[in-house]
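Run log // design_07
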């Protein structure tokens, strides 16, 4: 069993209020959980207007598959949402 835990720090564009930010973040969380069956949550910077930190965990039989899932999630977030992921931390 392999577990990959990743922390994504991102900037949100066009976020004029915490309500705007939370709607984008909740959409990301729901869609990524539903599509990839990963554990995902906002873990830090909840009160920052244009920043978000999302933690996600992937469990699979192969480390390579875990990394591929994380890569797909990052690509999908950056292409479908008005955000820029500026830091990716893998947590051992």
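design_07 sequence
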């Amino acid at each position: 069993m392999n577990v990959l835990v990743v922390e994504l720090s991102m900037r949100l564009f066009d976020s004029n209020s915490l309500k705007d930010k939370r709607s984008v973040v909740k959409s990301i969380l729901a869609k990524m959980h539903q599509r990839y069956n990963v554990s995902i949550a906002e873990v830090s910077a909840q009160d920052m207007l244009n920043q978000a930190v999302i933690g996600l965990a992937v469990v699979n039989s192969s480390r390579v598959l875990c990394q591929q899932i994380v890569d797909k999630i990052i690509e999908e977030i950056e292409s479908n949402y008005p955000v820029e992921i500026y830091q990716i931390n893998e947590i051992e």
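Helices lie at 18-36, 63-80.
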